[in-house]
């Protein structure tokens, strides 16, 4: 018997309209991404393959392979990013753990303090560190007057200063996802672990820590990728001694007006970031498959 | 779970008090749980039953008191050294481990050899009828299966005491009824001293050797399910366990009067200033042919009749205005015609069902 299909066309049209509305809401963003991201990046790729004589060439990439200074720059970039991420984990994870254990009202207050640095400009914060850490700066003066060390220690215009500044700026990006992962853990799980015979330390490493891994991984990834392209802080606090890819791009354009070389560097940075993201996303999926997180 | 090497342990709770600010979560609680007993802590939410269980498990530190597992004083022992099994209301299964990982966790902590772990995990899973589920992830399991895994994990290391915190509250009714029987059988098989927390009085009656009714941080009555139901110590217990109607009665020398009429009753009334007659709906017998011999007869008028399939519920008003609820079986004459609203009836209460309780609010 033929089923009665009342209002079929109307209902299908409603479905289509609903979808169109959603698309309409998304279209400004899609347009924006197209104009300020896809087209410029495409142009970047194109320029990176144009040589000094204006024809297609691989010279921009060849230069990167041949010159040792480029290898060093990439090495520095990854080194700074790794160290910053590592330090952020060492400082941020315990802090997130501490905040997650506080009563909600106090925890929220603490989170606001964590986010406070976001409300001041990056440049201001970086220069503030310059003032604090320089030879005759507050940190050295206080440390000497307290007898912690005798001579002023060089803390800016080197790796130390760069790392201090970068860690300070990146910390919230790590703390927030880790805190989120910690808050999502059912407190009964820790009780269950204790009840089954796990000492607090054992319970932490076998139950709590594994469950925060997705959050820790997401946070670390964010910090690492942001670090790869970072410019202001290493430029100011590194004092020319810590040269990262972003700074080389700037000097290629400002000093040598070599758009091709700069574009090639940009492309390499972009591609390596995407490779890292791709590898990471496989890990993240793995986490989900093993039931980690929620 | 083929052989049990450990004997069950008795639990002795003495004078345990726990306050949160001005609130007494536990008010000088003492309780002896016998070795191998299935004891239920029953009470409304906020009564202190869960606090007491958490004290037993070591997650709540009381202000004072003593707690002994067998001869061992454990009140200051941290949870991970207490060696008791426990199931949680939320199951608290580790989501990043497989079923076997969860069940094997306590064995791994106890440094049991790997090969033995596998065998004991499988045996524990068999016990809860989840044989072959070891490699499943927790999120692949249904609520009932999770419940079984939680039980398997709690018993796999053969603790001598098992604590269960509302283990069935998240399951639907049919599964709950089935699990009640299964847990009861499991207890009979393993024989460990079990303390079970629930707010469901039917569950408590079904499963327990004894029930401790808890309210306002105190144990109101500790008795077998039958005694609790038949001879509640006070109005709170009578009200909480089962349905009942309370009628005020007066004492006149040796006689107990309701509305001026002496009552026939088998058991002696408690020594209390005010007394109440407790009437269970299913114990009242409906007579449509007038008063009967040897029972207490109440003349009443039907005010509401509710058909409930297997039974019917009758609300009736007595001559002095008091309301009585009666539950009757759907059989015989009732099938063809239930009493009509406004019909004059006689309600009969046998002397053995005429229970007098202490009417003062505890």
From TrEMBL, chain A:
Keyword set includes Transmembrane: yes
Location of this chain's protein in the cell: Cell membrane
Cellular component, GO annotation: plasma membrane
All copies of domain ABC transmembrane type-1, residue ranges: 74-280
UniProt record, GO biological process: transmembrane transport
UniProt xrefs under Pfam families: BPD_transp_1
Keywords: Cell membrane, Membrane, Transmembrane, Transmembrane helix, Transport
Membrane-crossing segments per the record: 22-46, 80-99, 106-130, 163-182, 203-236, 256-280
Membrane topology reported for the UniProt record: Multi-pass membrane protein
Entry-linked PROSITE patterns: ABC_TM1
Keyword Transmembrane attached: yes
Family: Belongs to the binding-protein-dependent transport system permease family. CysTW subfamily.
UniProt protein name: ABC transporter permease
Species this protein is from: Ruegeria sp. PrR005
